[in-house]
Amino acid sequence: MKVLIVEDEKKTAEYLRQGFLEQGYSVDIALDGIDGLHLALHHSYDVILLDAMLPGMDGFGVLRALRASRDTPVLMLTARDGTADRIRGLRDGADDYLVKPFSFNELVARVQAITRRGRVQESLLLTVGDLQLDLVSRRVSRAGQRIDLTAKEFALISLLCRRQGEILSKTVIAELVWDMNFDSNTNVVEVSIKRLRAKVDVPFGRNLLHTVRGMGYVLEDRGDSQH
Ligand code: CA
User: Fold this and answer.
1) Does residue 205 lie within any of the structural domains?
2) How far does residue 31's CA lie from ligand 1's centre (Å)?
3) Dist. CA 70 → ligand 1 center (Å)
4) Which terminus of the chain faces fewer neighbouring Cβ atoms within 10 Å, N or C?
5) What is the pLDDT of residue 136?
6) Helix/strand/coil (H/E/C) assignment for every residue in the chain
7) What pTM was computed for the model?
8) Structural domain of residue 213, as residue ranges?
């Protein structure tokens, strides 16, 4: 999945870039409307995140010019909460919009929704040992048995699954799953990991979710050895 971010605030652009890289997307950035339109017309993207207020050519102008020849899904980011802007964006061919400030998790959910539309329902299946995760239907099963998870638990297991074999610190998990900076209160991560284990590991008698003391957590199939 390839995403183009057209955003003139460098800090926001970089934050979004990092976030989408973490989600496994490849990312291009344009810092103004003219560059954004150029990239959008000359490259192929799965989705474009388009800021409304941009120097050079604003987001609405980019959108109109783009729509003359391309139907790439576009999600508009607007700092203004005016209904008129939203209607204008949607009328000009945006697939969705989000008002700043927004939560990164919500942005990802919306991006997933608009890139799924009109596309063959592909199942994005991740596997760790006998654990299976379908990112599209959001179903989790282990050894063929369905596991019911809360939204946060699902976000947590899908992060660990996407980055299986990699040790993720509590801070990284807190930032990516809770979309917040947890300087001290990483207790929420510990509690959620514990709940997740009770559903995903305990009933099956073999652990996939491991604690790496002083470092964090890792999801991996270690065969028969238990630690
Ligand atoms: Ca802007």
Assistant:
1) yes
2) 9
3) 23
4) C
5) 72
6) CEEEEECCCHHHHHHHHHHHHHCCCEEEEECCHHHHHHHHHHCCCCEEEEECCCCCCCHHHHHHHHHCCCCCCEEEEECCCCHHHHHHHHHCCCCEEEECCCCHHHHHHHHHHHHHCCCCCCCCEEEECCEEEECCCCEEEECCEEECCCHHHHHHHHHHHHCCCCCECHHHHHHHHHCCCCCCCCHHHHHHHHHHHHHHCHHHCCCCEEEECCCEEEECCCCCCCC
7) 0.53
8) 125-219
